Recover the amino acids of this structure.
């Protein structure tokens, strides 16, 4: 249960929190969007804390992002052993830089008196979570070597599942505790972004690259519209770049998808044996099901009467499912007189299969939209979504020698013949019959 | 030609008595808040001296302003390739130690102290941490200490002097000094605006006031480093940068900024300058020697019909043109060429000008007797033997160009000599007449300079253009919102509030 929460509930909670919270903070609380800089109050230790931390975490972030966005490229890269070793080494060094930076930052916070004025309890929560996360990552990198190789097929498969709204925990539920903790903590940190100083990661000033050095604002509307041509040009260029970036991104993703699929199409499938076996199994199962269905159909075409059950199998309180002549589900009960009672089980509302259990008032219920049907008459209870009664199904009750001892018709009438002997009823067999052209002998 | 108007200022240093009334007026209105205690948007420094923050003129340390890069200009502090890494840690940002740790006194102790033999004292406590502090530094710690080896000797401007000149200046008996009040220069080519990664700092088109949009400021502190005058301050409490707003809410309602209004020595002049915005960058890209002259050249004559037509086409109102024609700043800066920008070599084109002080230059002591001679026979040797070497003033006001300072000194001497002879009903002697003639000032101009310097009224010193109400920010935001606020404003076209 806790596992489900950590790997399915928490991720969605985190994603919802980060999307809604960030939108709210960036639009409604814009004034607070920054990481309160404390360089003014303490500068020396900040240098040895902030710089290694930020550089390290940027490297690690990119290292986590690239395999997520470009799994094929990543797989091609880590195939080569020297590249793999280099990537792992860079990541590990970056991680160590982060730890050292964070430790300096934490010590600095605690021991500089002026800094306590600008430190909130949440800052320490963030510090502790980040430090734990980096340490967990380092332990993972050290004890479960070559995460760049195994993670894309497992952790990232789990991530894709989350994003595709079809979460599949099987990838991660049996992983070692350290890795599980690393993943779960990642969701917690993600969730905290909009509520802590971490929000500053959304204010990376990339716009600085695309602007004129000077900025002039006119409160005079006419002049604002006529601000220098170059300023307007730069602005339009900025918007143009933004637009181009958006369109290129979208088009890129789209064409990437198309190309990938068409690549597969022309290349043909290259599956390993295990995957092929799974596929084949599935296909075989489907074919078997179809064959079974077809055999039923054939049976119904060839025979005028089909054996359903021994009379003794039938019970008054629990129905037995069978398939009627129209290949629809149906239910067989035994009525108060000990005779069969055969009803269509296809709900007359929207066609769900009606349940087989009879309740205290002699009703069966359709689970889809709660229509109660009386099993004696097939009539739905007032207030049910449907008003059409379930049909009765024509049947013959035959003795062991084949003589018909009783029969029922689609309108629900039941009759016994002279040969009917209640004492022998346990040997009788129930048949359904084609409703047309078969009469009681 | 892109004609713009700029509210601009002249400080007449000969009249400054260093009373700090301006600083206190500003403090009480704008920076009496937590996080802003250490800020002095207006401060008064003793020169020679290191100023506030300490050694702010040392751009090797603080990396403010622009540097020449081929034909263009480059920021000293950052460029588009390294600004990103300076977000994490800015190597040149001044810290609290560079300013001072603000303090107050435990005045309550004076009242609460139990009866005893001792007089109760109010112990200083830090305004930041609230702990007891041993005061070691303040915003005007070296006030009146221009001869001190501890403070004045560290003045960056002294680097240009020869050891002999230095010792001459610092010799205690010959101690000379003057005061330098400083506010934000509201530069026409501001390096703080150019450095802001978030684009939160901007220049108002209508009057050129430089403001920080507190809403979009992300506290990257790049402006603090980039401003060579160290007049953008980081508020440690709000995490935003703040600066002098030239009391624009007062300007918009027709009042002079608080520091101007409260000036006891009446040293301050306020008025409009028209300038050609298209030529700013070009003007700031010439060699250091010519910077003062090239800045003067882009100011436009407000009486020129062509300029007026272009100004009106640019949305400059008749009220502003009227103010520009009456502007005392235009007279000092352009017409008489007597006021100079501070450290124009930072190439930000400051729009605040100083009339350099004549008095400490002129005064001499002969046989321990102070003498203030105006005898033209000593001219020009008296300028060469000035107590404050002209080279020192040149390094402050004209990027090292001594000739510019010398001309201004001559003009000031000429005005004095003429007015003195008038008062004493004396004829000017020949050398003095020659000196007056050399300055190129007409007798009318001399009278005008005298009047504006010594006798001018409030309305002559502060010519504030009438603001069109629809262009005033106050019209658009609730004035209550402005109280206790700072660096406020927009950097988008503001929606009009109906």
């Amino acid at each position: 249960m806790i596992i489900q929460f950590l790997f399915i509930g928490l991720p969605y909670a985190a994603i919802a929190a980060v999307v809604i919270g960030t939108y709210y903070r960036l639009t409604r609380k814009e004034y607070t969007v920054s990481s309160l800089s404390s360089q003014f109050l303490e500068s020396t230790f900040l240098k040895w804390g902030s710089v290694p931390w930020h550089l390290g975490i940027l490297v690690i972030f990119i290292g986590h992002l690239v395999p997520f966005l470009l799994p094929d490229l990543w797989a091609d890269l880590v195939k080569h052993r020297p590249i793999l070793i280099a990537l792992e080494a860079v990541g590990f060094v970056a991680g160590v830089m982060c730890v050292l930076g964070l430790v300096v930052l934490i010590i600095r916070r605690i021991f500089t008196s002026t800094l306590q004025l600008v430190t909130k309890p949440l800052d320490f929560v963030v510090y502790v979570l980040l430090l734990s996360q980096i340490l967990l990552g380092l332990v993972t990198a050290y004890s479960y070597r070559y995460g760049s190789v195994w993670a894309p097929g497992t952790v990232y498969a789990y991530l894709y599942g989350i994003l595709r709204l079809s979460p599949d925990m099987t990838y991660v539920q049996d992983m070692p505790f350290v890795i599980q903790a690393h993943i779960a903590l990642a969701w917690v940190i993600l969730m905290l972004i909009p509520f802590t100083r971490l929000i500053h990661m959304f204010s990376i000033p990339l716009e600085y690259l695309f602007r004129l050095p000077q900025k002039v604002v006119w409160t005079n509307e006419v002049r604002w519209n006529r601000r220098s041509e170059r300023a307007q040009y730069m602005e339009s260029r900025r918007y143009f770049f933004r637009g181009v970036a958006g369109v290129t991104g979208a088009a890129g993703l789209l064409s990437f998808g198309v190309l990938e699929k068409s690549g597969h199409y022309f290349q043909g499938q290259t599956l390993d044996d295990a995957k092929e076996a799974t596929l084949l199994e599935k296909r075989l199962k489907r074919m078997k099901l179809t064959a079974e269905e077809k055999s039923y159909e054939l049976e119904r075409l060839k025979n005028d009467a089909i054996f359903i059950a021994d009379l003794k199998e039938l019970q008054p309180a629990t129905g037995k499912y069978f398939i009627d002549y129209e290949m629809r589900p149906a239910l067989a009960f035994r009525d108060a007189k000990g005779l069969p009672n055969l009803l269509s089980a296809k709900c007359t509302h929207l066609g769900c299969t009606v349940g087989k259990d009879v309740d205290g008032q002699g009703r069966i219920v359709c689970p889809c939209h709660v229509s109660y049907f009386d099993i004696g008459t097939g009539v739905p209870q007032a207030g049910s979504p449907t008003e059409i009664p379930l049909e009765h199904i024509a049947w013959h009750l035959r003795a062991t020698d084949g003589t018909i001892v009783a029969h029922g018709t689609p309108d629900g009438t039941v009759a016994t013949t002279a040969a009917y002997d209640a004492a022998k009823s346990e040997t009788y067999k129930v048949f359904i019959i084609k409703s047309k052209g078969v009469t009681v002998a | 030609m892109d004609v713009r108007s700029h509210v601009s200022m002249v400080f007449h240093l000969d009249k400054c008595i260093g009373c700090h009334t301006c600083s206190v007026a500003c403090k009480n209105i704008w920076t009496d808040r937590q996080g802003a205690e250490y800020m002095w948007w207006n401060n008064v420094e003793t020169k020679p001296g290191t100023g506030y923050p300490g050694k702010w003129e040392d751009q090797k340390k603080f990396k403010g302003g622009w540097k020449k890069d081929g034909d263009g200009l480059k920021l000293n502090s950052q460029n588009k390739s390294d600004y990103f890494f300076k977000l994490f840690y800015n190597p040149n940002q001044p810290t609290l130690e560079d300013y001072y740790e603000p303090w107050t006194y435990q005045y309550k102790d004076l009242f609460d102290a139990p009866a005893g033999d001792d007089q109760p004292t109010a112990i200083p406590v830090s305004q930041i941490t609230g702990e007891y502090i041993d005061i070691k530094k303040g915003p005007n710690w070296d006030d009146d200490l221009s001869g001190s080896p501890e403070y004045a000797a560290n003045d960056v401007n002294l680097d240009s002097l020869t050891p002999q000149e230095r010792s001459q200046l610092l010799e205690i008996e010959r101690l000379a000094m003057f005061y330098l009040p400083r506010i934000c220069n509201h530069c026409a080519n501001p390096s703080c605006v150019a450095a802001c990664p978030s684009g939160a700092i901007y220049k108002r088109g209508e009057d050129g006031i430089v403001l920080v949009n507190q809403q979009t400021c992300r506290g990257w502190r790049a402006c603090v480093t980039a401003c060579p005058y160290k007049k953008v301050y980081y508020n440690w409490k709000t995490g935003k940068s703040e600066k002098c707003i030239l009391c624009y809410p007062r300007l918009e309602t027709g009042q002079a900024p608080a520091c101007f209004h409260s000036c006891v020595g009446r040293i301050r002049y306020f008025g409009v300058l028209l300038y050609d915005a298209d030529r700013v960058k070009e003007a700031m890209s010439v060699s250091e020697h010519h910077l003062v002259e090239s800045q003067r050249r882009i100011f436009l004559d407000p009486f020129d019909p062509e300029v007026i037509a272009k100004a009106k086409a640019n949305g400059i109102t008749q009220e502003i043109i009227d103010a520009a024609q009456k502007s005392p700043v235009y007279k000092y800066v352009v017409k008489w060429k007597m006021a100079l920008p501070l450290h124009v070599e930072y190439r930000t084109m400051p729009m605040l000008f100083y009339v350099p002080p004549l008095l400490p230059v002129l005064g001499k002591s002969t046989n321990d007797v102070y003498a203030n001679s105006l005898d033209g026979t000593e001219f020009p040797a008296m300028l060469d033997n000035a107590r404050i070497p002209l080279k020192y003033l040149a390094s402050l006001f004209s990027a090292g160009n001594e000739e510019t300072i010398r001309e201004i000194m001559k003009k000031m001497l000429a005005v004095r000599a003429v007015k003195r002879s008038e008062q004493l009903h004396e004829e000017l002697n020949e050398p003095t007449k020659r000196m007056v003639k050399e300055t190129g000032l007409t007798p009318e101009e001399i009278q005008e300079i005298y009047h504006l310097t010594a006798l001018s009224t409030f309305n002559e010193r502060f010519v504030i253009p009438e603001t069109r109400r629809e262009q005033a920010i106050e019209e658009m935001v609730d004035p209550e919102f402005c109280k206790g606020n700072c660096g406020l404003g927009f950097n988008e076209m503001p929606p009009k509030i109906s």
